[in-house]
Automatic annotation (TrEMBL):
Source species of the chain: Thermus thermamylovorans
This protein's name: Transposase
Amino acid sequence: MKAKPKATRKRTSQKRAKAFTGVHALLLFPSGEDHKATLDLMRRFSAGVRYAYNRLLEGQTREALKRENGPLRIFFGLNTRYADDAVMKAQALLDSARERGEDPRKVVFGGR
């Protein structure tokens, strides 16, 4: 095999993949009540994401879901920021399923 001419070679130093930096954390709770409250909030947020995903499939708007007297605030007791984040996460999941050409109605929430 002959080497490619220098003009057509790609320079690997110019296109380096950026390294991923992640953070792992272990939450320590001074009392059992804090642990229960955090788990309850996580449960309600996850249920809110699932609910928002199903409502987005039905055609409801993001604004209708996150408003002050909207279903995420009333049914799940989430504040406006958490409700907006739940809708945003559901919208991202819906867009991702559509981009990959998968059936968005067959998304599994939770599980292992």
